[in-house]
Design a protein that fits this description.
Blueprint: H1 11-28, E1 34-35, H2 44-53, H3 61-77, E2 83-89, H4 95-101, E3 111-117, H5 120-130, E4 136-143, H6 146-153, E5 162-167, H7 177-190, E6 196-202, H8 207-214, H9 220-236, E7 245-252, E8 257-264, E9 268-272, E10 277-281, E11 286-293, H10 297-306, E12 309-317, E13 322-329
Parallel strand pairs: 1-11, 2-3, 2-5, 3-4, 5-6
Antiparallel strand pairs: 6-13, 7-8, 8-11, 9-10, 12-13
Helix pairs in contact: 2-9, 3-4
Length: 330
């Protein structure tokens, strides 16, 4: 049974979040190319849309990862004999952690779980999912960014037992390479020697498959991207005409990434009152909202080693070309 945790944020935290949102929109819309940060995708509607994307037949990551977790959960946890705590960065619905937790069902004591996500909706979903598991106890939820949440979740920590940090799905791919390198070093610094880090990474595959995954025929990914403009309208007093933009995924082979753009269909001016910004868009000009970097298996091992981890084992789903890699802190 999960512990009781207060879910309502103090009003000052809400105000601070809106102020940070406004400041980022003010700065990012004036960049060239114009940008918006993907962390703002995940309001309540955005979180539900992302869960829908994960069920689309063209988005193979979720099913590939599920197969790996179902088949290899026990193997993934075996090197961590004294595992007491699991921390998931970007917990989503909690379904993946629940699959992994099957690997500890036969152990004598329950595993303690700490959830980290910037979406309150995702945290609620995870708590409900994991609350049905008698051998799992949710002892903390952190509505925070990965780095801030990890600091909260590991200070203090029990004096005994090992910890496993999860960074699953294609979350790694959303970080620029230099940011990913710094982030993995930060994860390592929060862990003790012998702790584990299970890292998901989507691998390079044919361009047509990538573009279909990020531009599905049903338009769910487009709605997910477009919801960011609607959120700015609702929360910051923006006047984006959603009909004046269209979603466009692009494969950048040189950078090994899929880029998500919102392309202006015409020349237009957009203002965001609370961000104190007004922007003139030319026809065809885009807002770059997200990058999803794709890796090779060796790339994944290299960035883990550079951060101070030893690769224990790597599992690859061959049909979808998705990997899970277990690292151990040295």
């Amino acid at each position: 049974m999960s512990a009781s945790v207060t879910k309502e944020r103090p009003i000052e935290q809400v105000d601070e979040s809106l102020a940070a949102f406004a400041a980022d929109v003010h700065a990012d819309l004036q960049k060239q190319p114009r940008q918006l940060q993907p962390k703002y995708f995940y309001d309540a509607l955005g979180s539900h849309l992302f869960e829908s994307i994960c069920h689309l037949p063209w988005y193979l990551i979720t099913r590939a990862e599920r197969r790996l977790l179902e088949e290899h959960a026990a193997d993934m946890l075996a090197p961590l004999e004294d595992l007491t705590t699991i921390i998931e960065l970007g917990c989503g619905s909690g379904a993946k952690l629940a699959l992994l937790a099957e690997g500890v069902r036969k152990r004598a004591r329950p595993v303690l779980v700490r959830l980290i996500d910037i979406s309150a909706t995702a945290l609620d979903l995870s708590e409900r999912t994991l609350g049905r598991l008698p051998h799992v106890s949710v002892v903390g939820r952190h509505e925070a960014t990965y780095d801030a949440g990890l600091r909260e979740a590991t200070q203090p920590r029990p004096s005994h037992g090992s910890t496993l940090v999860l960074f699953l799905g294609s979350n790694l791919g959303n970080l620029r390479p230099e940011v990913a390198d710094a982030f993995l070093r930060e994860v390592r610094s929060a862990l003790r020697p012998g702790d584990g880090f299970l890292l998901g990474a989507d691998l390079v595959k044919p361009e047509k498959d990538l573009l279909l995954a990020y531009g599905d025929p049903l338009g769910v990914t487009a709605a997910f991207n477009m919801n960011l403009l609607d959120r700015i309208n609702r929360e910051l007093g923006g006047d984006f005409d959603l009909g004046g933009f269209e979603h466009q995924p692009r494969w950048n082979a040189d950078a090994s990434r899929v880029e998500s753009h919102l392309v202006s269909k015409r020349a237009q001016t957009v203002s965001v009152r609370d961000a104190d910004v007004s922007v003139d868009f030319a026809e065809g000009e885009s807002i770059w909202t997200e990058s999803s970097y794709k890796y090779t298996p060796d790339n994944v091992a290299e960035i883990g080693a550079a951060a101070g981890f030893r690769r224990e084992r790597q599992w690859i789903e061959p049909e979808s070309q998705f990997s899970l890699t277990l690292f151990v802190a040295e």
